[in-house]
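User:
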Amino acid sequence: MKNLFLIAIFCGGLLVPAMAQDRVPPPPESKPDKELECDEADARILKYKEQNATLQTKLDGLKSDIMKAEGDLTSAVGDLKKCNEDIYSMIGATEADVNSFRERLGRIEGKVREMQRLNDDQLADRQAEVKALEEELNALRRERVAALPEFYDRVIALARDIKGLYREKKIKGYTVGTWAENRDCLWNISGRAEIYGDPFQWPKIWQANTDQIKNPDVIQPGWVLTIPPAGPKTDEEMKAERKYWRKKRAAAEAAAAAATTPAPATPATNNATKTEAGN
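Assistant: Predicted structure:
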């Protein structure tokens, strides 16, 4: 009996640590690995193994989904190619014809984007190029490939963009004509299409010609006026314009005040010829 008791104690001593080890919770995440006890390290390793297994399962699932998606994509690409071939056949074109059209259209689009970055004066000097682009695009539009859905909207938009590149060449100088024949004043000159096309830009001409124009309301036939480049009015031009309108308003108010002030009365004079009595 004594021996059996000793054996039971010995076995119990072995089982208790094992059971205690099963109940050891994972150590805090903030605890460094090098500070872990053996049982804590085992618990952390077990946790990592479980996480690894979970992630591996997800990865395997994603790989399966990717393989399926790649298969679907390959099938869709094949269907699209077959559909395009049928469309090309309907218009009597080949894939090489379509690729050539795409390349030429892209080249025109690139040139148009480049020219859209130019200012009005630069565009005015390159109107021959704009015309050539329009003619090249019109030649493309006459091809049956232009009717394909891939190109139809692009061609229409490109034609609109090219139309927007046309500019009238602005002149650098202007000789003033007579009012009777040309109706020339700064307002009308500024409004001419070949100048600014905007009469409100007249202060630009005035300020560029102050050596001749002392009063912007008066210009003389034969004067050659410098026409500055188009663009927003400068601070000096706007300042001069405000000063001009203040002066005009003050003159108008003074004239109105003078018109409403009654003139002083003057004594009446008898212009009748006095005759001699008896005649």
